[in-house]
Specification:
Elements: H1 11-20, E1 22-25, H2 31-55, E2 59-60, E3 63-64, E4 68-72, H3 79-85, H4 88-97, E5 102-112, E6 120-123, E7 136-142, E8 153-156, H5 158-161, E9 170-171, E10 178-179, E11 188-189, E12 197-201, E13 205-208, E14 217-225, E15 242-246, E16 249-250
Antiparallel strand pairs: 1-12, 2-3, 4-5, 5-14, 5-15, 6-13, 7-12, 7-14, 8-11, 8-13, 9-10, 15-16
Length: 269
Amino acid sequence: MPASTTLPITDDQMRQYVEEGYFILEGAIDADTLAALRGECTRFIGEIDARMDAAGTQIEGINHRGKRYFITLNHPKSEALTEFVFSETMAEICRATVGPDAFVFMEQFVVKMAEVGMTFSWHQDSGYVSHGRVPYVSCWCALDDMSVENGTISVLPYSRAGTRERVTHVAEEGTNDRVGYHGDDPGIPVIVPAGSIAVFSSTLFHCSGANSTDKPRRSYLVQYSAAPIMRNDGAGPWALARQFVKDGQIDRADDHPIVSPEDWVPERA
């Protein structure tokens, strides 16, 4: 299952990543791959809903039935997700951002259901990671056409945020979102067609609005680090530490460590 993109990534895009913390690849995911990712998203939502039914509840962790879903670390159970996470497209993004060595750090679907999807406050992805300072890249894949109305992300370039460093985040009362930017800059909304990828640094501030439309807003977030991100106690990796690119080449070994989804805090996008 190929995952084609407008590669090679241009020098201007790589320069923008260094200087401003992000770039956009429009139409990066081909139609067949996009359909497969959407299908797996639907399948895993069904599994979560079935577990809620069996437990007689409307909430499972931070998943709220019919409202929002964070569907995490399922690529070992999905050929389609594995093909995408370990695709040449993603390898090229890694080479252009984190360098010749890259480790799969985390992957998850983030779904804001119709008319009830919640907002997420300004944060850096690294603001949710207290273990180490290894740089990593976030690949936010739009599974639907994205708009302000359906709660797309907005990004705040380094030059407008006033920093490219990780900052201390504080918990927001009522949501427990971790907030790192308290200014009034509205940022730049990522208005892109389905199949596009927003590529941004773990230190780029971003937020997202509520979904006020009558359709779900689905995204798939895959993150890659330059080296394993370890726990403070050194007992092992904080999330995943599965090598993907080694010396610039895809490494398809399947013996790299994987940990349980319960062992980390999800990003919010």
